[in-house]
Amino acid sequence: MTQKADPNTKPRTLIVGGGFTGLAAAYELARAGLPVTVLEADPDVGGLAGSFDVDGVSLERFYHHWFTNDRHVMDLIEELGQQDRILLRPTRTGMYYANNFYRLSTPKDLLTFKPLGFIDRVRLGYLALKARRVKDWMALEDITARQWLIDMAGENVYRVVWEPLMAGKFGPFADKISAVWMWNKLKLRGGSRGKGAAEMLAYYRGGFASLAQSLADEIVKHGGEILTNHPVNELHITDNRVTGLRAAGKDFEADRVLLTTPLPIAADLIQPHADAAYVDSLRRIEYLANVCLVLELDRSLSETYWLNVNDPSFPYVAVIEHTNFEPPETYHGKRIVYLSKYLPADAELYRMSDEQVFEFSLPHIQRMFPDFDRSWVQGHHVWRARYSQPIVGKHYSKLIPAERMPVDGMYLATMAQIYPEDRGTNYAIREGRAVGKRLVESVS
Predict the structure, then answer these.
(1) 208, 425 in Cβ contact below 8 A?
(2) Is 99 inside a domain boundary?
(3) Same domain as 165, residue 248
(4) Hey, which of 60, 118, 232, 255 has its CA 20 to 30 A from 375?
(5) Of 105, 166, 144, the residue nearest 324 (C-alpha)
(6) Are 110 and 157 part of one and the same domain?
(7) Which of 371, 390, 409 represents a domain boundary (last residue)?
(8) In a domain, 367, yes or no
(9) Rounded to an integer, what is the distance from CA 280 to the centroid of its chain?
């Protein structure tokens, strides 16, 4: 068993998880001159924003972008002196509905959206403006997204636009999702508009993994430590106080431990040391998994970046053609397409092999894009995330665990605690920096 560090020395903090929350917290601690070590199970930092190699170029395993109003990530990039790597571009959004493609990038597109009558088109367009006018989001905690959307825009708008998307995103949980979750989505997207009200999105030259590595380099520069391929096996706790942990077969001493893992993993780690009621509280929030099929193509599927799929017979909720956002020249001329599906971890698609996922998907892609042929595919990759989307139900605020855990020196900061905002790199950075600053202040 490890021993507690000398109380006369600066307290050492171990951070479990090298995603943006853990890195942002470590950044604050390292800059303050406090010893900190980040332990990441994967070979690279970045978490859900981690990447893989496409002909020598880094590409996210799961699609990523920022909105122009994501200030926390923008501010961090400026602090790192990397603002010249922020890329702002207009994007083309669309919808696949009743075997047809519809462009939905601007208010003008909305006014010509044929699946809805004129009055319903106006109602749909006015929805984002209504969402931005909501001041007391707590008042939405008692109603579902379904009821709120119907109240705001009517049954027909909900049936055509929102019901298929909610079902595609949340599956069996669709009717349980809180209005708060939908309100925040509408507010965020509505605030990321450029000239002509076209949606503007941001990307990072070199990919999100490059930003994660820049942040890791800055932590090391200030005396911190980053250890990848270090899954944490157990916590060391004596007399209800953390003294360290064991990772990758080695013991690490610590005065404080910050867990940034999904709540079920945090529950597994703390279970031998906490009462059953607390462990159960960490398991109350359910998660959906995600399967993401990434295609490398020799030509484009369409001109749309983000295609929402309002067709329940199609197995994915969205088709994201990344190279309609970041140019194909970045990837030596290849077109990169993501097909994303949130689903329970026991779903058949999640349990398929990579090759089975690819073969299963081909006829669906060919049905949507009749000209598509498998000969276009130059490479394919399948990525899975077991804990990808917390289920944000009614009164979610009452389910969120506190930052301080019931063991002295133990802290918790995860994407499930980001509320009323939804998970995302911007808010992971915000929460990570906030807990990091509190840990620094607790020493002074």
Answers:
(1) yes
(2) no
(3) no
(4) 60
(5) 105
(6) yes
(7) 390
(8) yes
(9) 24
Residue 99: exposure state from Cβ atoms within 10 A (0-12, 13-18, ≥19) = exposed
Give the number of other CB atoms < 10 A from CB of residue 166. Answer: 22
**In terms of domains, do 398 and 383 share one?**
no
Domain count for the chain, please give it: 3
120 within 8 A of 154, measured Cβ to Cβ: yes
Looking at residue 108, what is its pLDDT?
87
What CA–CA distance (Å, rounded) separates 344 from 422? Answer: 19
Residue 422 is predicted with a pLDDT of: 86
| pLDDT tens-digit readout, 221-244 | 999 999 999 999 999 999 999 999
CB atoms within 10 A of CB 335: 19
- Distance CA(366)–CA(275), nearest Å, equals 53
Q: Is residue 78 part of a domain?
A: no
Backbone angles phi, psi at 159, to 5 degrees: -65, -45
Q: Which two tokens stand for residue 226?
A: 């980053």
Residues 228 and 263 in one domain: yes
How far, in Å, CA of 2 to CA of 246, rounded?
9
Tell me the average pLDDT across 1-29.
79
For residue 157, what is the domain's CATH number?
1.10.3110
Alpha-carbon distance of 254 to 241, in angstroms, equals 10
Q: What distance in Å separates the CA atoms of residue 319 and residue 208, rounded to the nearest whole number? A: 20
Residues 313-322: pLDDT tens digits?
999 999 999 9
CB 118 within 8 A of CB 130: no
CATH of the domain at 275: 3.50.50.60
Residue 331: count other Cβ atoms within 10 Å of its Cβ: 18
* pTM score above 0.85: yes
Query: SS3 of 100, please?
Result: strand
Query: Of the given ranges (179-193, 259-273, 338-352, 414-428), which has the lowest mean pLDDT?
Result: 179-193
Residues 6+ apart with CB under 8 A from 324: 91, 92, 300, 302, 303, 304, 305
411 assigned to some structural domain: yes
390 forms beta bridges with: 287
Q: Which residue among 390, 413, 429 closes a domain?
A: 390
Question: Are the beta carbons of 3 and 240 closer than 8 angstroms?
Answer: no
Q: What is the CATH number of the domain that holds 307?
A: 3.90.660.20
pLDDT at 9: 72
% of the chain with per-residue pLDDT over 70: 96
Task: Looking at the structure, tell me whether residues 179 and 33 fall in a common domain.
Answer: no
Residue-number span of the structural domain to which 308 is assigned:
288-390
**Ramachandran region of residue 249, left (φ > 0), alpha (ψ -120 to 50) or beta?**
left
**Rg for the chain, CA atoms, rounded:** 22
